[in-house]
Amino acid sequence: MNPIRLYFALALGLCSALHAAEIRITDDRGVAVTLPQAPQRIVSLLPSLTETVCELGQCHRLVGVDRYSNFPAAVRALPKTGGGIDPNIEAIVALKPDLVLMATSSRGVQRLEGFGLKVVALEPRSAADAQRVMDKIGTLLDVPDAKRIWRAIDAGVSAAAQSLPRRARPLRVYYEVSTGGYAAGPGSFIGETLTRLGVQNIVTPDLGPFPRINPEYVVRANPDLILIGARNAAGLAQRPGWRNLRALREQRVCIFSTDESDVLVRPGPRMAEAARILARCIAEKGQGA
Q1: How far is CA 284 from CA 26, 64, 167, 174, 251, in A?
Q2: 279: which residues sit within 8 A by CB, 6+ positions away?
Q3: Which of 32, 121, 129, 198 has the smallest number of CB atoms closer than 10 Å to its CB?
Q4: How many CB atoms lie within 10 A of CB 156?
């Protein structure tokens, strides 16, 4: 081949290879993000995103996480970079990441981008969101089996639902997610899991995925079963009108440990485990309701 033609052929091939190595996704802000290659130094500022990176077998790429990321155990030794809402920008920049994963609601996105860092903002609220986020992170990390992993998670949720006796199905439940009366509505990933488990959420869909619920709303609905984390469970009977709730009178309250609550409120790889925790609670406390 003519040396000049050979040179151009090689150059064209090299350009094509470099272009093929580029990774492009659109994040949950609608922002298109292009990376020259799969990132090797990642800071994650949302526990569900941290867990997703690790479930994809890429924990070793994490160089820093938010203060709440505590699973798997390997991430506990990583530098902490503040919270998802209030990240420590200077600490993140000092870690020299080639990618920062964070929630769309974080206040630090623009500041981090101002330092020239690549930011991908992802915030799952539903099961479909969690699946989409896993696919996007799989694309970012060049991991091809994200869909297979999600299928296993979904199958685990289905198995938890099938484990429940039919008598548990008519139960009307109230799930309080956090202090201040924030509940899991039917459109949230928690509410969707409850629906798959066959129980009825007292929160109506029109209120949104995580609405703030007035105590009187719960009194009027009078649920058969209350689901709540240990952090928020103190003084339930002292809430206005709650003393006479059927769930409290008949001791049908599931109080989740801190570790269980972490599993339950994170839309990601441990959703099948969350379904099993909820199914055990429903089977135990829902008997005879």
Answers
A1: 44, 40, 12, 16, 11
A2: 160, 161, 163, 164, 197
A3: 32
A4: 17
Q: Cβ(30)–Cβ(114) under 8 Å?
A: no
The set of residues, in sequence order, having a beta carbon less than 8 Å from that of 21 and lying 6+ positions away, is: 36, 37
Give residues with Cβ within 8 angstroms of 107, minimum separation 6.
85, 86, 87
88-91: which pairs have CB atoms within 8 A and are 24 or more residues apart?
89/115, 91/64
Q: Which amino acid is at 17?
A: A
pTM of this prediction?
0.89
* Sign of the four-CA dihedral 122, 76, 113, 135: negative
Of the candidates 31, 77, 17, 24, the residue with the CA atom closest to the CA atom of residue 50? 77
Q: Are 115 and 97 in contact (CB under 8 A)?
A: no
What string of DSSP letters covers 137-178? HHHHTT-TTHHHHHHHHHHHHHHHHHTS-GGGTT-EEEEEEE
pLDDT per residue of the chain (289 residues) written in tens, 0 to 9: 555 554 444 444 444 434 457 999 999 999 999 999 999 999 999 999 999 999 999 999 999 999 999 999 999 999 999 998 889 999 999 999 999 999 998 888 999 999 999 999 999 999 999 999 999 999 999 999 899 999 999 999 999 999 998 766 689 999 999 988 999 999 999 999 999 999 999 999 999 999 999 999 999 999 999 999 999 999 999 999 999 999 999 999 999 999 999 999 999 999 999 999 999 999 998 766 6
* Phi then psi dihedrals of residue 161, to 5 deg: -65, -40
CA atoms of 245 and 257, how far apart (whole Å)? 23
